[in-house]
Amino acid sequence: MSEALNLVLNPEIDASQAGPHFMLGDHACAEGALYAGCRFFAGYPITPATEIAEYLSERLPELGGQFIQMEDEIASMAAVLGASVAGAKSMTATSGPGFSLMVENLGLGYMMEVPTVVVNVQRGGPSTGLPTLVGQQDMMQARFGSHGDTTMIALAPQSPQEAFELTVHAFSIAERLRTPVLVMMDEVVGHMHERVIIPPPGQIPVFQRRRPDVPRAEYLPYRPGSDLVPPMALAGDGFAVRFTGLTHDESGKAVTTYDAQQLLVPRLREKILRNREAYERTELYRTEDASTLVVAYGITARAARRAVDLAREHGHPVGLFRLATVWPFPEERLRSLHDVRKIVVAEINLGQVVLEVERIAGGYAQVTHVGSAGGRVPSAEAIAEACESAAQRSP
Amino acid sequence: MTAGGVTSTDQSAGPTGGVVACELHPYDHLLRYEQLPHIWCPGCGIGTALGALLHGFEHASVPPEKRVIVSGIGCSSRVVYYARTDAYHTTHGRAIPFATGLKLANPDLKVVVFAGDGDLFAIGGNHFIHAARRNIDLLVVCINNFNYGMTGGQGGPTTPEGALSTTTPFGNAERPFNLPSLAAVVGATYVARWTTLDVRRLQATFTEVLTRHGFRFVEVLAPCPVSFGKTNKIGSGAEEMEYYQALEVLKSRVESTTPVGTDIILHQPIVVGKFVDYERETFRDRYAHLVAKAKE
Amino acid sequence: MRKEVRFAGFGGQGVILAAYVLGRAVSMHTPMHATMTQSYGPESRGGACEADVVVSDHEVDTPEVERPDILVLFSQEAVAKNLENVRSASLVLSDVDLVRLDGEVARKAVSLPFTRTADALGRRIVANMVMLGALTRASGLVPREAMEAAVAESVKPSTRELNLKAFDAGIRL
Question: What architecture is domain C2-171?
């Protein structure tokens, strides 16, 4: 096999796109992947995520990468894991119906500890639902979709610019923590054009996975470092690794016992929870004196920001707590807003992330929900109204 | 573990855990002793097939660090725990797409998918036909024991018509896949079938097929004495081997890309041999050529 | 300042490209902000088709267009779909040969022969560029130079000259 045919696994950051663009959200996400060094994409066409695949089918080969359209989303998810164990930064992109199929091997990636990035450009559901219209209805599936106990990391961009940035970020989190990371976009962000400024190479840090620094004979593929993340040897490195979805010991040997399970599965969870600084991103807007808070993410956060201004025009001290990282929920950051007594969660579903907010803040704040079954972003007016009536309600 | 042929005094790593120093088998260094004993039943054919594959790796001179085995779920898929290669134990039916990504990301590796008939052709059937169609550069080894062994002998996509299993208590009403025909028709560039009786032919086949390129398929008919053999009154592992010995018909020449007469019918002759062997451009090569052409 | 612009017509009339050019002109060639959204699905391949651009001197908060300030109409169906908007918009731009506006029309209505002008240039497909020229002049929303630059960047190099010619013809309509 000639060198020329091999994938570029340690790419230089592509500088050709640096600068301003008027860019589709889906394309910005794809560019974010390339900036992060993604050189393998496997996927299956689905509205409203297809533009990511189309874009990468053209861009990846230019950069020495590989695009492949698989037979379904199950295969796509399997392929990106396979590419990752061979050293490629990999990504797939889909929407609800395809995400349902990916969840199977998403669990494998979590258990096997394989970094990869999965984008879900959310549309309205259930089932085939609203292919071309917006939803944020897969948030609980992102968090709990896999069987068994998993602790997933999910980001939610609010604009094409952030689709770029959070996708870069998603790769770094995946590589740093050796785990799949979800980018939970939505149809409006994916299908919207806006100015996107791609920074020059190096401006956004890009993390590479830690490789073994011990002799081959001593290497254990699941022996964690102090951050609970095991360094990762690649296929072909000569370590004869065993990676598996079965409960295993540090050597990768299948050990299907209670004791092995208690060592492994809690460690996988702790690995995520203990490294919050690696992925937790939130934004506060006008919260200094706010006793009422809107919690929102993705496209809904933009309506929520306007709602904050509207409510304040009417004299209500309302602020915005925007989640760029939705899972694991940044709960300490929410709790740190001591003056908040009313919380309105705005999201395009019938009540998902609101359940987590109730769990965290239900003891000290009244929590209400603004949303719909999908198809449209809640209006700023509707969110503002919910804030105002929450603010006026007696505690 | 030390290399083959060397006398070991490392008793703790030995399969018996005994205290007697033992002469190592020449292929012991290809196995992970610490994982033994294996899970397979007495008389099972999977170990024989794995041994032949390891022989193939050695004789085809595949460098140890280039050997990768990807498996799915089932008895056959457990080979990844015993073979000293890079080994990936994936989900049920998904070994082929996982291996597809792995191979495309590092085309220098020799990637073998090793799994059972239920894994590869029921839950994983769609992946098999598409990987073959694309001509992904993989060797797929199917241990066909005509049933789901690990879960206790349920019927599957290769269970012969009329055969008994725990889910076909009145006999199997379905027509099984003819795996060599299926593989050939969807684009495999190398197709062979042997039984675990044919150890030397299996060794020669793996040695040869590991030097070929493209989507290659080797079916290994293997006894499952505690499930399929017992239920269908074929008997023990040895008796199932005798069954093969009596019924095997060797097809000694590759005549075309469409194997004929390879249906498996209970108590009827079983055609074995190499059926397909040709080269066509693999997906990765074709992709690279098209990209290079576009760049010109 | 926030201005909402809607382009409505049939798929294939270049409605989406027109919105893209406007959004690009704002985003790439002015300090203002623009957000473009469009109708998706089979509509953009022949049925009713709409694309919206929000232009703002602040970052655009919500990209949804409920009541466009500027409405560009390329078909009679688009009028029917936007009856309320025709009344409320401050500027309605339409193709005089494709659209009839009766009675209750907006504060400012401009009916011009976009398609006919494009035909005269030899390619009906550039009617959207003729319209963008007219829009630039009638709305004063974006400087002409910004629009011209965006037109040039948004079309194939081989058709750049024709598209710019069409844009220029639109300005002079």
Answer: 3-Layer(aba) Sandwich (3.40)
